[in-house]
Each structure stands twice: as structure tokens, then as C-alpha cells.
Amino acid sequence: MTVDVPAALTRLAVRLAGEGARVEGAQRLTGGASMETWAFAVVGPTGREELILRRRTAPFDPESSRSTSLAAEAALIRAVTACGAPAPPLVHLCDEADGLGEAHVTRRVVGETLGRKINSDPKFDAVRPALARQCGEVLAKIHATPPPAAAHLKSADAAVELARYEEVYRTSGAERPVLELALRYLRDRLPEPRPPVLVHGDFRNGNLIVDPQKGLAAVLDWEISHIGDPAEDLGWICANSWRFGRPDRPVGGFGDYADLLAGYAAAGGDPIPLERVRFWQALGSLRWGVMCLMMYSSWATGVAPSVERPMIGRRVSETEIDLINLLEAGL
Amino acid sequence: MITHPKPEELTEAVARWIEEIRPQLDLRNQFLARVAANALAAVTRELTVGDQAKAAAVQRLEPILGHGGTYEALVWELCEKLRAGEMDVETPGLLPALRANVLDQLAIDQPNYKHDRS
């Protein structure tokens, strides 16, 4: 079903800001293959508000099969912000009257999300050295948040995640020796279970809003949050796929392991050894490699007919060189 | 195969045209047009150096598996052995061979991807 989003936003503006309110600058932002993100402003009797609409576009999509609903995401945003973790404040959870399908509206947090800019634009030179520590602090707060019952979150530890990626890889039919090697290597080195917590699930450079004065301003994309190993979030942001041209800075291409771990412990997080983070970093590279294969498959089977999807399949080799580097160095 | 034009010249010409018209598109289509041009650039590289990379990969896999074969057959056999645990990171020569094969593939797929050994 095709939705005329700008027309629906105009109706929504009246609902949010009253009779006479109008929409300005509605624009679809790039990125997000199963979700659409729109920036727009509502101008009403009380002033102008910059907002973000997130809406699901693909009714079925293997990539999002473990996603939460946007209603669950809304519950999560409320829960984590109550515990001091920064997320864009929720303004409205859409219902049928809005005609936008599954969607929600949040306030637009000012700052940069493009990983490459955060890592290399001189504008961020002043805050960059503090970012890894801020990420650790924010993760400790997320992990301390009681999971909201309304979100119906799934549980997954390292063994469950690894088995899932293996299944997706086998189903894809691809023959990739490095992925085979990594699957076996990680299965032989599964970490001891530890008490499960609320994990963000996609905590990486690219899902962070960074302010040139304050540093980390908000964490985006809560749709694959689940209950799991806290080290998952720390490892994922260290995967080289999210270092955007700065492989020499392990945390998101902007910081060091030690700062991430120190910030985590300082904010009350149960300390995590580096080797556990490195395990999840390797599992993260494997995860992204398998997701790239999955995105190719979704194009090949006709589910997602975009030029973006098949080309993402040609990013598997990026994760393969990262895995070779990790396997050679040891965890 | 005919050479006037070669297939990699056709892909290159189309990629250049996409780059030319890209600034006139809306933001979303500018992004997709860049992806399309990147896809054509990858195809151009594969047409240019793909056969060479495949032959080199076969040469690296043969001593590890102890016999010759096509690229597809050798990769399939290696995957089977890795899955069964008959080969692993300790297998002599395996990691260097896989590294070299992946680097050749990366040079086709994403030549600007930055990675290190840490």
C-alpha cells in the first residue's frame, strides 16, 4: 500500500498542534531499508516544532523479523529516558486515524548522525575524545533500565544469536569460507552466561546523535532491543563496519576500548572484560556479514526491489577481512 | 567477446552518466544513484580483474586441499571441511590464503574500505 506521507503529515499537524497548524519542509531522509524516516516541522499557534516520523514500510522483511513494533519502541524510549539514557523524546504514537500505518513521531534532536562526519569533521574535534566514555556511561544506564513489560522483548544470549546467524547463512545458500571459519571459531569460544539485561541491540556509530558542544546527545533506533548479554552492545559499536574509515580507533572510529569500559564501570555498569567485548565484536562482524547476505536475498526473492539491497551483498567481503584480522589476532 | 566496446567500457559509460545527472535528483534518489554508480563500478572491476582474482584464489586453495579443481568446487569443499571441523584457524597456510583471497575480492567489491590488523 502506498501512503501519501506529506498529505498524512498535514492532517497529523492539526491533530498535534491544533486547527490551522501546517507542515513545513517534509523530507524523506536517506537510509533505513525497512523503515522510512521523515523530517518535518509543525508550525502551529504556539510556534514551530522540529519533528521526526518513523514508519514501517515493508510488511514482511527478514531483516526486521526480530524487530519490536514501533509501539514497543515507544515504550522503550519512555523507559530508558526515565533511567537517564538520552533518546529522542516521544511526541506521538500513530494510530489508524493518522493513516500512516505503523509509525511514531519524536522530537528532532539537533546534532550529527553520519559516522564519517563524527569521526573526521573538525567541528567534532572538541567532543570526540570524550565520546567513547560517554557511550560507556549511556550503555550502563540502558542496561540498568527495567525492561518495559509493554515491549514484549525477546531474549537472546551469544549461543542463541550465533545459532540464528548460522541458520540465516545456511538458508542463504552462500558458500563463504571465512564465515564458516568464524561460525565454528565463535561457537568454540562462547562466553560464560551472565545475568541478562536490556540491550539496545543496534548501538553503533550511525545510530548516535552527536552534538558539537555536548557530545553524545541521543541514541536512535530501538527497534531490535532485547534481553541479552550487556557485552553485545559494547562489542557491536567496536565492529570495524562502524568505524567509518578510522580502523585505528576501535570504538565507533572515535575512541578506545579503555574509555568505553571505564565509562561503563563509572556509571555503575557491572565491569566487562575486554575479551568478552572482543568476542561480541567478532560476532558483530559476522552478524553484519550475514545481514548483508540477507539483504541481497531479500532482493533476489523479490521482497525488496531496491538497487540498494543487492549492492549491500557486496559488503560481505568487508566483514570477511575484519573477521580474518580478528581470528589472526585472537580475541 | 567483441572489444568495440568491451563490456567494462559500457558499465563505465553508464556509471559516468549517472554521476552527471545525480545532482538534479532529489535527496533519496541522489543516494540511490550513488549506489547504482557504485554497483556499476564494482561490475567494471570484476570484468577487468575478476578472472585473474579467481585464478589466484584457486592457486592458493590447491595446496591447502591437496588437489586441483574449479574455484567453485574448491570453495565448496573448503566450506564443507570448515563446517565439519576438519580444518580450522590452526590449519597451516589457511588464514594467509583466505586473507589474500578476501583482499582480492575486497579490491573488486569495496576498494576504499579501511581495515587494520588489530
Q: Gist?
A:
The complex is a heterodimer of chains A (331) and B (118). With 331 residues, chain A is an alpha+beta fold. Chain A is built from eleven helices and ten strands.
Care to describe what's here?
The complex is a heterodimer of chains A (331) and B (118). Chain A contains eleven helices and ten strands. In chain A, helix 4 (128-143) packs across helix 8 (257-266), helix 5 (158-172) packs antiparallel against helix 6 (177-187) and helix 6 (177-187) packs across helix 9. Chain A has helices at residues 5-17, 70-82, 115-120, 128-143, 158-172, 177-187, 231-236, 257-266, 274-300, 308-312, 316-329, and strands spanning 22-28, 35-44, 47-56, 90-93, 103-107, 155-156, 197-199, 208-211, 215-219, 226-228. Chain A folds into two domains: 5-107, 2-Layer Sandwich (Phosphorylase Kinase, domain 1); 115-329, Aminoglycoside 3'-phosphotransferase, Chain: A, domain 2 (Alpha-Beta Complex). In chain A, a hairpin with a 3-residue loop joins strand 8 (208-211) and strand 9. By secondary structure, chain B is mostly helical. Chain B has one domain (7-109). Helix content of chain B is 71%, strand content 0%. Chain B is built from four helices and no strands. The longest helix of chain B is centred in the middle third of the chain and has 39 residues, at 27-65. The relative contact order of chain B is 0.10.
